Amino acid sequence: MDHRLPISRRNLLLAAAATFGVPAVLAGCGSDAPTPAPGQASGNLGTVTIGSNASDEIPKRSLDTVVKGFTQATTRINTVDHNTFQENINRYLRGTPEDVFTWFAGNRMQFFAEQGLAVDISDVWQEIGADYTQAFKDQSTGVDGKQYFVPFTYYPWAVFYRKSLWEEKGYEPPATLDEFTALARKMQADGIIPIAFADKDGWPAMGTFDILNMRTNGYDFHISLMGGKESWTDPRVKQVFDTWRGLMEYHQPAALGRTWQEAGQSLAQKKTGMYLLGMFVAQQFPEADRDDLDFFTFPEINPAYGTDSIDAPIDGYMISAKAKNVDGAKALLKHFAQASSQNIATELDPGTLAASSKADTSGYSALQKRGAELVSKATHIAQFLDRDTRPDFASTVMIPSLQTFVGKPNEIDPLLVNIEKQKANIFR
């Protein structure tokens, strides 16, 4: 039985159309010391602790501000580097986790719920359910039919660029892969690195693989591959890597030594022409330049699938099974579910969209409105590679494998054989 609960246009973001970890050491990893949210008033529910992966400046400030509005309890936020948080989440949840922790919808939520590492919050959903579409509820539901997750924000992946640079050079968004490569060649001739690219953190290359696979082989094959049901030595998978290899000459070089933030800054500085990333790339733009940021969906490769699929991951909150203050934690999750809380977040963080269907989107920037429109028009929405597959497969197999490919793009066959061998051992 397929428990991934994929979102499709019919039951998906009607949302967008309608609404146009970690203890003080995270199992030995360094982190910020837990500090009370500034200005926090103490209520009658004691203290609620939060393990947060919002380590970048803008999302960190956004969470701090939202938590300030929660007055039913005192809160302590323990912020850990985003990648460190993800890499150590399993050990964290089995150790001494905070009450509430930031996490992701879909398969990654279900994986920990199945292991008994998260609290059933179906009673919370009885109160907040009317604020969400069925699609968001599906992505918050475990294989047992119970809810374990409260969606907070989401964001689409697309190809971002600076409008002023493109207007100056006469560039137009490409509709096909051939047009995309022709545009990249023109950028090279103009002395611009065509595609900003970074994979020091391990996960950004997953977005490139996702979109090339969905454009080449379709959403259903992609989700089946992520579920361990397809062979990585399948010629269809090799075609994805062959296509990617053909684009490598247009990518920003030395990607394994660059963070996504640095690649985003190169786009902001007009040193690169375009960047396939989540809408959170806007965080790397000075506020005065954000109106100059625009995007197009990655172009068609296979006419059978066109541009019907995108990645649009959902971020939110869960309660750890070892929570010391479950009542306070549930009250905090209800606070996160409020449209007013999400309105604050999307105003402070220009790279996010509110998950609540009751959120006020009238204050969305032009970029946010375009993002919501892109999601609403997609037939299929994936949650991102490391959220659509098992976390152990994503972290121990796919991160090093994709980094190997980025470093040595001509050695595809042995790479795919190795991925398939490891997959067979994990998906038993």
Automatic annotation (TrEMBL):
PANTHER family: ARABINOSE-BINDING PROTEIN-RELATED, OSMOPROTECTIVE COMPOUNDS-BINDING PROTEIN GGTB. Keywords: Signal, Transport. Belongs to the bacterial solute-binding protein 1 family. This is Carbohydrate ABC transporter substrate-binding protein. Residues 1-27 form the signal peptide. InterPro entries: Bact_solute-bd_prot1, SBP, TAT_signal. It comes from Nonomuraea cypriaca.
